[in-house]
Amino acid sequence: MRRTAPAFPFGFFAAKPGALALVSLLFAATALAQGAMLAEKTAGAAPAFHQVDADQSGRVSLDEVLAYAKQQRETKPFALKDVDKDGNGLVTQEELRRAGITGLEGFGSIRAQDLDRNGDGYVSHEDLDNYLNTRHSEAYTAADEDKDGSLKASEFVLFRFK
What we know:
Elements: H1 11-15, H2 17-42, H3 49-52, H4 62-72, E1 78-79, H5 80-83, E2 90-91, H6 93-99, E3 110-111, H7 112-115, E4 122-123, H8 125-143, H9 153-156
Antiparallel strand pairs: 1-4, 2-3
Helix pairs in contact: 4-8
């Protein structure tokens, strides 16, 4: 008499249906936990190419990047004296956090004069636009590997959107 392989390749699970259910639940729980960790890691990540490519041309211009960045800007105007408490002319991420200023995360320490271009002690919407446009322009130029003045999808992944 010829032996045939069991219909279910893992004889243990075939003999113990509860074990299969337990393994399925553990797999599902692990997948959910990994999904949550991935979502946490990518929070604040760069937008998808198609979100920035407003004209759907398949290329992203600097104007599209700057328009998208302005749309997403969270930072509100503030007085430097309320943030740079030690008065050293350097605004740190910790100082921004303590002052409740959001939207400049990832930029590291920022020289006050880079934020307050006209030196009035107040960081206005115009000052923020100037600072962020400069930073985005620098990142854009670095990502434009073929130097054609636009980013295709493969270059866009090199762009660090802050």
